[in-house]
Amino acid sequence: MILAAALSASSSGVNTAVLWPEAPAAASNIVIGFVGGFVDHNNSHHGPVQLAQRIRQTVPKGTYVRVFENRRRKQAYDVIVRLLDTNHDGVLSVEEKTRARIVLFGHSWGAAATVLLARDLRRQGIPVLLTVQVDSVAKLWQNDSVIPDNVAEAINFYQTEGIIHGRRQITAADPAKTEILGNYLMDYKKDPVQCPEAAWWDRVFTPGHMQSECDPSLWSRIESMVTQHLSPQPTSAAISPTDHPQPTR
Question: pTM of the full predicted structure?
Fold first, then answer.
């Protein structure tokens, strides 16, 4: 109950929910993020949303970038499958799956959702280039510690300050197929980060968790990792959920 209350508190901000239109016809490069707690998917006060806004301008042309609430994992899965189904026959061929270049990232409950979505994709034989977990917090019935073998690389960032602590270590279900890039401790007592828009209760009860979401150095590092993992193509503005699909030239 304390954890849920704290996570709910950390989601403070204006609710700017909108109804997203259908995904574009097709995309091979797909970047999916998940926000934590009860944060809205387009609340720009939060790290995953800010990251998505930035990388839409730097990733290769035709890349689909979108952020979901952590409870919308099924919706994210459906969007990915629809994007990969280039011939629109309702069945993903081996070729369609092979072309997938997917990056998943998230914070808190959203980081745990990243791992769960990767497992969902594994059941369909869909590969994932990279998963990024930031101060990952699993719900009671979830396991966010073991990365499935359809993921090529995974990285985990965590902190230990306050009542909410991220997962300290992730491991690979099959180390021969998945490389764990590292489990990195963020020491905000040593190197504090200013979060001017954070609520007072976040500062008091979850200071480390709060700072992990607004740490500009951390999210810039993740931004670099995401762009580096996508296929090298001329860069242009990416597809956002509100865009109509544009043909790649």
Answer: 0.83
